[in-house]
Amino acid sequence: MIELMRTNDAVIISFVEALLKDAGIACFVADRNMSILDGSIGILPRRVLVGVDDLAEAKRILTDAGIANELKGD
């Protein structure tokens, strides 16, 4: 799997998960439970990972949804 995006915003993560699920693209949110270490203040970003074969399609979906600024820079 490869990193698609990284953010502290739980709403964006939920939105991305829903978009990818609707498109049939499996994703994994890494570091979701890191709030244990940061005291639930949200300073540690969560990473959304997708399969290498799905990366281009996932980027297109996020771009079409208007959140391309959240994509990981190459």
Describe the structure.
The structure is a single chain. The chain is an alpha+beta fold and 74 residues long. It has a single domain, classed as 2-Layer Sandwich (Alpha-Beta Plaits). The chain contains three helices and three strands; from the N terminus they run βαβαβα. It has a three-stranded antiparallel β-sheet, with helices on one face. The chain starts with a strand and ends in a 10-residue tail after the last helix.
Helix content: 25-40%
**What's the shape?**
globular
Number of helices: 3
Parts with pLDDT < 50 across at least 5 consecutive residues: none
- Count of extended strands: 3
Task: Write a brief structural summary.
The mean pLDDT is 88. It contains three helices and three strands. It has 74 residues and is an alpha+beta fold.
Summarize the topology.
Elements: E1 2-7, H1 10-22, E2 27-30, H2 35-38, E3 46-50, H3 55-64
Antiparallel strand pairs: 1-3, 2-3
